[in-house]
Design a protein that fits this description.
Number of helices: 14
CATH superfamily of the domain at 2-163 and 172-189 and 199-282: Alpha/Beta hydrolase fold, catalytic domain
Distance between the termini: 107 Å
Low-confidence stretches: 605-636, 943-1024, 1125-1134
CATH topology of the domain at 2-163 and 172-189 and 199-282: Rossmann fold
Shape: globular
Strand content: 35-45%
Number of strands: 72
Largest sheet: 11 strands, antiparallel
Radius of gyration: 33 Å
Mean pLDDT: 82
CATH architecture of the domain at 2-163 and 172-189 and 199-282: 3-Layer(aba) Sandwich
CATH class of the domain at 2-163 and 172-189 and 199-282: Alpha Beta
Helix content: 10-25%
Amino acid sequence: ATTVDVTIASTYANNWQDYQNEGTQVRIQVPSGYNASTATPLVIALHDWEQTRFNAFTDYAAAADAKGWLLAAPEMHGEVNTAPNTGAEVMGAPASQWDVLDTLNYMQTYYNVDASRIYLIGYGMGALTAYLSAARWPQLFAGVAADSGPSALVMWEYETRPYIPPDSQGLTPNEALNYAIRRECGSYSEPYHYLVAMRRPYQAGHEYDRRSPSEFAANFKHVPLLILHPQNDQVVHPHHAEDMYIDVNEFDPDRLELQWFPGKHGDRYPNFASYTLDWLDVSQRTPGLAPAANPFRGESPMQIWWLGVEMPTDPAKAHFVSVPVADYVTVAQSITIQVEDNNLPADTSVNLTVDLAQIGFPTTNTYLLERLNNDTGGFASSFLLPEAGRLRVPVQKGAFSLRIYYTNQMPLTTTLTLRQGLNGYSGAQDTAISAWFPTTNYGAEQELEIRNQHADPISEPLVKFNLSGLPANAQLRAAALSVYFISGPNNANRLPLSVYALNRPWNEYQAEGVPTDRAGARADLRYVFAPDIKRYWGFDVTQIVQSWLVDPTSNHGFILRASDISTDVAAASNRFNIASANHVTAGYRPVLILIYTTGSAITPTPTNTPTAGPSPTPTATATPTTTPAALPQTPTLPKDWKLVHSSPGVSWRDIHFVDRNTGFAVGGPDWETIGPPAKFIKTTDGGKTWTEQTLDTLGWMRGLNCKDVNTCWIAGKYGTILRTTDGGTSWEWVNVRTSYAGYLYSVGLTGKGGTVLVGSTGTLTFRSEDGYNFDGIDSGADTVQWDFACPEPGTCYAASNGQLVTRTTDDGLTWQIFQTEWAYQKGNYFGISCTDPNTCWVAGEYGQIQVTRNGKSSWPTWEAQHPNIPTNIDFWRIRMLNGRQGYAVGTGGAIYRTDNGSTWKPFVSPTTEKILDLQIFSMDDFFVVDWGGQVWHYGVHTLPMATPTATATATATATATATATATATATATHTPTATATHTPTATATHTPTATATNTPTATPTMTPTATPTQTPTATATPTPSVGSVAGVVFHDVNANGAQDAGEPDLSGVTVTLRGPAPLTAAETTLTGADGRYDFHTVEPGAYTVAATPPEDYFTPDAAPQSVDVAANATAQADFSLRTYVKSYLPLLRR
């Protein structure tokens, strides 16, 4: 391959002085064997924060050359001149996007680039620019890969804030990065763009929003997008990847994939360069194809396939225009567009442009435009004349539905406005249903609540109008449902609100418990903004009402549903109120506006002659793509606990897996028991079966760690340390050169060379560099090192007695001691888990869990995470899967889970024995070992844990052949945790269907052509499993919502379970002496649970709790009850 360095003149309009002379520096690689007469794919690679083009070039040079692709890695510019670090902190600036465009144009000018195979890759900060460049010019790129990048700059700024009062510390504090973001979004002086002042989101909201890819999620509908992200990224929090996936997925994209992998920022997906290019290689643009569905969002002039927007470039008038729906029908020669511009500045012109030639429509003669104001119901018809093959449609402030027809006939329309009390109309009904109060009726209320609790809709209004007033020959042209919002949250939240048709009858005064039986497809989606709340907000319901006119018996009204489509990190809980048909102010009541015709029309002579507008930048030829077939979703399988091994009389103390197949556990008799010797078990089939071995020791063994499947160390009673180098077949006593006969509790591997650490009960930490000769190192404190965590080579932490944490940064040679503060009495830490060198969790006695996010600082600060954990629980281990998810285990079979890294909730446990250790592969796949000699696995057991491999080809139908040779065995490598939920990966397309594999006799047309070498044992239709609902009711003495030390359990309290939705059958039980209740054999579904307070008690939030019951799992719902405060006044004599 040949490397070329060039400087390309910039075409960006907002250059600072000397910017164009400096230009964009690009390193180019021309592949070996390049032939100028052959069109060659091009990949453009963008670098991370504090990197240069050379990093991006190096990342992909070998893989690009192996594929014979051209490679270009540009330096990037920001809006602010922060030389000499200009390219290192561009933060998605528009200038950096033009660097991408200039690079692309240069490559197409001087090389034979295959226009149908241009790909864009970005890493970290470069992923931010890659996202934004593809969103601005989606028709140019055949695929995009974003690795470890942010999806919302406003959240990234907030999350990187260090702890500097009055600011609170972010999720991923990084002072240097935070300042870089604020500098690049700051104000600057002309003509050199020198920084004047750094700015935060509240000071430059639009600047941050236009650099946030999630704002442009609609633009990726036809851009194949691969998202890669490490699970423990402490620079760009992992929720950014999940948010972007969810936001893009809302628009039903052609190809979208999210791949998680272990590690932190800077770690890369295995063989990432070849994997990424192979993924992109599948996609290419098909010239001349204009996708029928074309949604987009923009804040600058742009052309998205066949639809463009003309808007000012003046920063003072910058704002967003959203087009959530844009479709055309060739046969009918009609176009439907929904456009929303709620912030159109005064004296500002914004136009949508339709490229008629690109969609195959006539480029001459008259078009009819019908415009419906979704909020007010205002309707207008006008004629348009194409100019230079384009239609220009002026955008007005608000939300509008536009319908364009190729015709010179304008129907004469009539508007019918339906509102309770208007002109004597009395055909409106409305009420609401509540997941918290399913038996409460709201038919007589003046206001109806719309509420969501993160992703769960809680309260949903139902609205229905009698349509008998429409003439029998009415032909509907448009319909809008508009509701008046009385109130909303006192913040800047926006509520995603969808409208659906209901599928069954209901009565507004008997609607309690009515099921949300709704149409599968929503009619419209709006984002309702709290700051602009008190007005009518409307929805296009034309298609729903048209279906009712065809079949009047199907009119069961509308349901309004709220749900937040982001992850828990970004999610919001909202409560909005709309006016009902009973509202005292008639002008606030729900309105249904119907625009119809009875067949008459006029044919006026068009008088408007639109002037052709400027062609939006860029001028590159669009290269559309075909829409690939949808990939099948991986089914969600039931998960439960399974006892996989039992050794009566043995107390298992430690478990460790080297990989998903090979694992070990060690234990022995009780602490003070003299003999018998320790026990050791091993599995090589992923934990399904275990072999047991008796060790030559004088008592129990407590610590266990392995370097690989052959080499392990165990430590325990009487200073015993054993090593195996053959996978546990034989063990040898190591050479402990410092005399010690006490207890040893833990084994750690520092990750630097072959250093092994063993924790003791005294001041010594035993250390070996060769794994055989151990020396005692004075740790400086007379304490117990119960557990080690080594997040980077040479850096280890230990959980210790006396609320101490010890740390080494020199491979165990010296140790620092840190005292943490406990909310309760002083106790011991037994478990520690780190996700990176700064972020560690410790857990121990009295329900204590604490976290540090600055662990490598000179004096780390620790934050308690214990408010809802009873103090009678002692945690023996804590293991974090990533920076957000993990489990802690302890006495009485306690298992607590976190999904956000800070809030811990009880998790269903299979045992009441003390759990001393656990091994996590994913949040739905982990093992625990308990004091009763049992090994438990939580995961999928209704089907084999490993996909069986078959060699037969079975013909399922006359046109489809399912090949059973390809299995999903690679999924564990490519997507350790999230593929099944988030990613319809290519792997899934190779997996044979359940029918073809599991039930060959159930399909008469199936004719297997060969006998499979292995047959799955599961049936295709397993018997449905049941779950349970459990919890505790307690007296919340200090009214903090959590059960603290000394707060008593309440026995004899009635607990009621209702469901499953849509049913409302009730089942009751009483709490036991320990305050606990349990509903067994509960069918999967959505339920509500309510506790009836006994006399003198009340619930602070009267709402029942919503729970989702899954098969073979327990849903938890606890209740905190308070007592009334009684006051007595003295009796005064007269």
